[in-house]
C-alpha cells in the first residue's frame, strides 16, 4: 500500500497545507471489496497515529461508514467494469469554506464507458424511464445516504466514482488522539477479523454501528458459493466467535417430506476441542422448526443441559434457533449458543436473523445451481454420443470441454459408421446456449445419422439438414424459449431469432494400402487443418454458408487422400476465438502455427498439445465451449 503526504493546492486558513493520501490497485475479482475495507481501516489507523488535526474527529461511525462506502464502490467497479480497480483515499483538512472530510475515489478502466447525460455530478441518484435506479447500481443509493457528496468523473478509458464523508466534530477519546488506540474507531476492521467476541455490554452498540459492515462482509463471502456445504461452513465461521460461542447448521434434504430427516451440515465452536463432542450430542436430535414460528429467534434448552435449560455445570447460557428460508421454503435451521448470559439483546437477535436470511438466499442459490447442473449433465449425456466409433486404420482423439457445467452447451460431435464401408464424423456448434440451443443440438445429431445412413452424399446431407433446420428445429427452439419465459426463467436475448448452425461434416473411406479417402463440407465452421509429416499445414476445406440461413443453400464437397502419418485437426470457434484481451488465438494463423509444432505426435498427443495451448493463451478460463477432433491415418 502506498501512503504519502501531498500538497493540496489552493488551501488557506487552518489547513496544514498537506493532506494524507493512500493509494492502491486491486484485482478485478470478488476479493477486491474485502481488501479495500482492510486498506481503508489501515489508512485510518495510520493517520490517527500521526496526530493530524482532522483525525481528532475520527469516530466509530465514520470508520464503519467508510468501510461500507468503499465496499459498495469497489463492488460496483468489479461487477460492472470487470477491470482492475484503483483506490485513492485521502484526508482533507478543514479550510475556511469546508470542514474536514474523508474522500474515497474508486476508478475502473473499462475502455467503452460512455458518458451519459443522466449521470449524477453532485450526489443525486438518477433513475431510468421506469423509475428504477440507473445502470450503475442500487448500491450507490447507500453511498448517497452515507456521503455528504458523491459523483462520477469520466476520462479517456477511466471512470472514477468518488464520495466525500464529513469527519465527525467529536472525539471519543478527548485526552489522546492515539487512544488505546484507535481500536474502537476501527470497529469495521475488527468485525472482519476472526477475533474473540467482545463482552455482552458492547453487543447492542456493535450491532447498531457495525451491522452494515458485518452483513456486507457476509454477503461478499456467501455470494456466488455453488455448494451448500461451503455456505454452511462459511456461515458457522462468521457466527463464531463474533455472535456466538458455538453454532450448528442443519439442512433439509432436497426431497421434502415427513420421512426426510434434516442433515447436520456444520458444527462450529470457539473451542475447537469441543466441536466433535457437540456434534455427537446434536446428531441424535435433528432440529426442525415448525413454519408457524416464522424466521425470528426461538429459545431452546441448552443441548445436554439441566432440566431448567441451563448449561450442564449449572451456569447461565442462551440457546437460540432460526429457520433458514428462501423463496418461502424451509431449507434448514441454525442453532447457536452463548455462555454466561441470560438474554441476548434484541439488536443482536435482529442482526442474526438478517444474517440467517442471507444464508438462506445463498443455500437456495447453491441448490438451484446444483439442480441446473444436474439437468444439464443429463441433457448432455442425451445430446452427445456415449461412445464414438473407432475407424479402421485411423486413430482419433477428441477433446470436449463445455464452458459452464450449469448450462447446456451448443457444441456437439459424433463419429459413426455408415453403409458402404464409410465412416462419418461431425463437429458442430449451435448459435447460443441453453434450452433453445439444446433443442437444435438434440435434433441435428440424429438427423445427420439418419441422412448419412440413408445413403445421401455429404453435400446432399447438408442441403437436407439445412431445410430441416429452417422448419422443425426453429419451431422447436422458439417453443423452448416460450416455455422458459413462461416458467419465469431466463433465456438467451436472441431466442426469438433463427438458430444458426456451423457444421463440419466429413466421410472417411479406408484405402487398401493404408490411409483413407476423406470428403469434407464446412458450413460456416472453422476450417479443418491438414498436418503433413514434414510439418506443413494447410486448410483442408473451403468456407461455405452457415446452416439455417437460406432455405435454397447449396453445398460443395472437397476430397483428398489422408495418407499414413497425415493428421486432420477439426475445431470449434471456442478454440479459434479464444481471447486474450483484444487478441484471438487464431490471429495471424495462430492455430496453424501451433499445429505445425505437433509433427511426430500421436493423435492424442496433438489433441493434448492444442488443448493446453488454448488454455495457456489467456489467464482467464475459456468462456465458450471448447471442442476439437484429431484424425490421424495409420
Outline the structure in words.
The protein is α+β, with helices and mostly antiparallel strands and 634 residues long. The chain has 13 helices and 24 strands. It has helices spanning 32-49, 60-81, 139-146, 187-192, 203-222, 228-239, 275-283, 346-383, 434-453, 458-486, 573-576, 590-596, 603-616; strands at 2-7, 18-26, 85-92, 101-108, 149-155, 158-166, 246-251, 263-269, 298-299, 317-326, 329-339, 394-401, 411-418, 422-430, 501-510, 516-523, 529-531, 537-539, 543-544, 558-562, 567-571, 579-580, 583-584, 626-633. The strands form five sheets. A six-stranded antiparallel sheet has the order 1-2-3-4-6-5, with helices on one face. β3 and β4 (101-108) form a beta hairpin. The chain is globular, with a radius of gyration of 32 Å. The two termini are 60 Å apart. The relative contact order is 0.07.
Amino acid at each position: 500500500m502506498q501512503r504519502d503526504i501531498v500538497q493540496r493546492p489552493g488551501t488557506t486558513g487552518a489547513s496544514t497545507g498537506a493532506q494524507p493520501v493512500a493509494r492502491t490497485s486491486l484485482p478485478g475479482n470478488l476479493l477486491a471489496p474485502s481488501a479495500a475495507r482492510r486498506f481503508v481501516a489501515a489508512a485510518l489507523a495510520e493517520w490517527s497515529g500521526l496526530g493530524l488535526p482532522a483525525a481528532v474527529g475520527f469516530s466509530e461511525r465514520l470508520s464503519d461508514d467508510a468501510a461500507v462506502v468503499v465496499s459498495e464502490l469497489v463492488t460496483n467497479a468489479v461487477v460492472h467494469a470487470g477491470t482492475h480497480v484503483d483506490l485513492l483515499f485521502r484526508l482533507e483538512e478543514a479550510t475556511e469554506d469546508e470542514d474536514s472530510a474523508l474522500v474515497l475515489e474508486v476508478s475502473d478502466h473499462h475502455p467503452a464507458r460512455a458518458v451519459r447525460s443522466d449521470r449524477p455530478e453532485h450526489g443525486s441518484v438518477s433513475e431510468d424511464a421506469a423509475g428504477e435506479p440507473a445502470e450503475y447500481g442500487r448500491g450507490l443509493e447507500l453511498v448517497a445516504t452515507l456521503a455528504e457528496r458523491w459523483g462520477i468523473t469520466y476520462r479517456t478509458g477511466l471512470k472514477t466514482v468518488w464520495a466525500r464523508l464529513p469527519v465527525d466534530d467529536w472525539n471519543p477519546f478527548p485526552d489522546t488522539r492515539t487512544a488505546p488506540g484507535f481500536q474502537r474507531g476501527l470497529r469495521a476492521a475488527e468485525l472482519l477479523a476472526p477475533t474473540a467476541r467482545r463482552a455482552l455490554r458492547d453487543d447492542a452498540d456493535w450491532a447498531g454501528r457495525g451491522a452494515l459492515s458485518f452483513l456486507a462482509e457476509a454477503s461478499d463471502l456467501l455470494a456466488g458459493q455453488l455448494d451448500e456445504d461451503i455456505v454452511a461452513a462459511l456461515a458457522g465461521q462468521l457466527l463464531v466467535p463474533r455472535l456466538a460461542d458455538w453454532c450448528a447448521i442443519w439442512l433439509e434434504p432436497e426431497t421434502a417430506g415427513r420421512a426426510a430427516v434434516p442433515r447436520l451440515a456444520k458444527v462450529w465452536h470457539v473451542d475447537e476441542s469441543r466441536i466433535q463432542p457437540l456434534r455427537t450430542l446434536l446428531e441424535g436430535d435433528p432440529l426442525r422448526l415448525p413454519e408457524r414460528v416464522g424466521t425470528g429467534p426461538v429459545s431452546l434448552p441448552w443441548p445436554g443441559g439441566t432440566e431448567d435449560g441451563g448449561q450442564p455445570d449449572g451456569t447461565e447460557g442462551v440457546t437460540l434457533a432460526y429457520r433458514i428460508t428462501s423463496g418461502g421454503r424451509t431449507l434448514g435451521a441454525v442453532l447457536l449458543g452463548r455462555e454466561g448470559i441470560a438474554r441476548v439483546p434484541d439488536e443482536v437477535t435482529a442482526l442474526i436473523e438478517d444474517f440467517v436470511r442471507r444464508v438462506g438466499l445463498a443455500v437456495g442459490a447453491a441448490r438451484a445451481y446444483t439442480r441446473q447442473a444436474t439437468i444439464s449433465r443429463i441433457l448432455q449425456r442425451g445430446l452427445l454420443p456415449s461412445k464414438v466409433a473407432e475407424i479402421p486404420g485411423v486413430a482419433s482423439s477428441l477433446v470436449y470441454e463445455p464452458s459452464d457445467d450449469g448450462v447446456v452447451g451448443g457444441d456437439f460431435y459424433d463419429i459413426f459408421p455408415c453403409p458402404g464401408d464409410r465412416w462419418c464424423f461431425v463437429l458442430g456448434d449451435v448459435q447460443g446456449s441453453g434450452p433453445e440451443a439444446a433443442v437444435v443440438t438434440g435434433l441435428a445429431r440424429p438427423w445427420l445419422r439418419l441422412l448419412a445412413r440413408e445413403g445421401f452424399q455429404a453435400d446432399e446431407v447438408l442441403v437436407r439438414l439445412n431445410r430441416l433446420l429452417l422448419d422443425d428445429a426453429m419451431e422447436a427452439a422458439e417453443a423452448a424459449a416460450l416455455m422458459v419465459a413462461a416458467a419465469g426463467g431466463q433465456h438467451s436475448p436472441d431466442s426469438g431469432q433463427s438458430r444458426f448452425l456451423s457444421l463440419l461434416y466429413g466421410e472417411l473411406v479406408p484405402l487398401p494400402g493404408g490411409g483413407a479417402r476423406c470428403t469434407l463440407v464446412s458450413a460456416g465452421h472453422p476450417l479443418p487443418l491438414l498436418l503433413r509429416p514434414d510439418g506443413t499445414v494447410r486448410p483442408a476445406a473451403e468456407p461455405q454458408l452457415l446452416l439455417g440461413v437460406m432455405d435454397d443453400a447449396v453445398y460443395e464437397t472437397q476430397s483428398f487422400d489422408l495418407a499414413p502419418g497425415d493428421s486432420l485437426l477439426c475445431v470449434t470457434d471456442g478454440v479459434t476465438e479464444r481471447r486474450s484481451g483484444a487478441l484471438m488465438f487464431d490471429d495471424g494463423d495462430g492455430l496453424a502455427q501451433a499445429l505445425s509444432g505437433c509433427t511426430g505426435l500421436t493423435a492424442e498427443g496433438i489433441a493434448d498439445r492444442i488443448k493446453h495451448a488454448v488454455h495457456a493463451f489467456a489467464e482467464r478460463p475459456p468462456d465458450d465451449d471448447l471442442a476439437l477432433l484429431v484424425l490421424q491415418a495409420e
